[in-house]
């Protein structure tokens, strides 16, 4: 891509981008620090909490990876470390001889029960309690929009206020 075709950020766009990056880093660092104090990583908590939401606290590796937005190999490596600590176990997947099921163990559920209040308090301290209700609503709206994959014709962003795309 030549630099002539690059749509450089305006000063306002660059400030917004940098502000978002700083917020993401600060909130994530704060919650990671708080979870580390009780012996869990953010990744551990994410695996435990999403697995606890599944029927019988069991999920295929592929479904779990998709739900978390991780690659299968990343989840498989992390699951191995969690299995060694007794937080989950792997079981053969009867529907797929090459796959496996991840099963939340009793110690894993206990770890999640112990961590959940710490995590919620951390999320409150680093994010929720620092924002007004309308800020939270705006954040949810923005996050929902950003979670959607961009359409090819939306690469340029939304049209300016008062205009529409053909």
Write a structural description.
Helix content is 57%, strand content 11%. It has helices at 11-36, 42-52, 61-68, 72-84, 106-126, 133-147; strands spanning 58-60, 88-93, 96-104. It has a 3-stranded antiparallel β-sheet. The model is unreliable at 159-166 (pLDDT under 50). It has a domain at 19-132: Orthogonal Bundle (Arc Repressor Mutant, subunit A), CATH 1.10.10.10. The chain is mostly helical and 166 residues long.
Features:
166 residues; mainly alpha; Arc Repressor Mutant, subunit A; 3-stranded antiparallel beta sheet; 6 helices; 57% helix; globular; disordered C terminus
Short précis:
It comes from Micromonospora wenchangensis. With 166 residues, this protein is mainly alpha-helical. It contains six helices and three strands; from the N terminus they run H-H-E-H-H-E-E-H-H.
Describe the protein's topology.
Blueprint: H1 11-36, H2 42-52, E1 58-60, H3 61-68, H4 72-84, E2 88-93, E3 96-104, H5 106-126, H6 133-147
Antiparallel strand pairs: 1-3, 2-3
Helix pairs in contact: 1-5, 2-5, 3-4
GO molecular function, one term: DNA-binding transcription factor activity
Protein name: MarR family transcriptional regulator
Organism: Micromonospora wenchangensis
């Amino acid at each position: 891509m030549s630099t002539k075709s690059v749509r450089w950020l305006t000063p306002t766009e660059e400030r917004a981008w940098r502000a978002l990056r700083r917020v993401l880093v600060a909130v994530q660092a704060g919650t990671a620090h708080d979870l580390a104090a009780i012996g869990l990583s953010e990744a551990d908590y994410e695996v435990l909490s999403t697995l606890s939401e599944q029927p019988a606290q069991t999920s295929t590796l592929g479904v779990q990876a998709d739900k978390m937005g991780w690659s299968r190999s990343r989840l498989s490596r992390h699951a191995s470390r969690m299995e060694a600590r007794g937080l989950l176990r792997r079981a053969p997947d009867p529907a797929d001889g090459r796959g496996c099921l991840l099963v939340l163990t009793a110690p894993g559920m206990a770890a999640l029960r112990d961590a959940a209040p710490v995590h919620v308090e951390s999320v409150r301290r680093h994010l929720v309690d620092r924002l007004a209700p309308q800020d939270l609503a705006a954040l949810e709206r923005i996050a929902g929009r950003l979670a959607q994959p961009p359409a090819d014709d939306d690469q340029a962003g939304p049209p300016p206020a008062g205009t529409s795309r053909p």
